[in-house]
Design goal:
It comes from Caldanaerobius fijiensis DSM 17918. By secondary structure, the chain is α/β, with parallel strands linked by helices. Helix content is about 50%, strand content about 15%. It is globular, with a radius of gyration of 16 Å. The mean pLDDT is about 85.
């Protein structure tokens, strides 16, 4: 199975995906194809992922590239961190949740925030 991760150079998104794939879900014999416009960051995330896999005895292939087409070739699943108008939409969600006294989480979206993000895509 090949999973392509677009925007994997993000210091928030990248490590979270790596941790979930390698530690939480132990995706043995899988390929994570990391892609980002920043070569230095995507290569760094690939190195981090390889180290996490090695330390947790998970047999996973991790590649990195700046070429989206290359990373997408043969992908079974694609995960994207791209957020159109990200902060603007996050602030809109924040105001609605605050208005109704609902808990506001910071970081990865969960609950109502996640639903809002999914429906907006």
């Amino acid at each position: 199975m090949k999973i392509t991760v677009i925007g994997a150079g993000s210091f928030v998104f990248g490590p979270t995906v790596l941790k979930d794939a390698i530690i939480k879900n132990r995706l043995d014999d899988c390929e994570l194809a990391l892609v980002d416009i920043n070569k230095e960051l995507v290569d760094l995330m690939a190195s981090v992922g390889k180290r996490i896999a090695r330390e947790n005895n998970v047999s996973i292939k991790i590649t990195s590239t700046t070429r989206r087409e290359e990373a997408l070739e043969g992908a079974d699943f694609v995960i994207s961190s791209a957020a159109i108008q990200g902060i603007k939409r996050w602030l809109m969600d924040y105001e609605v949740l605050k208005k109704y006294g609902l808990m506001i989480r910071h970081g990865n979206a969960e609950g109502l925030e996640a639903l809002s993000i999914l429906l907006g895509q």
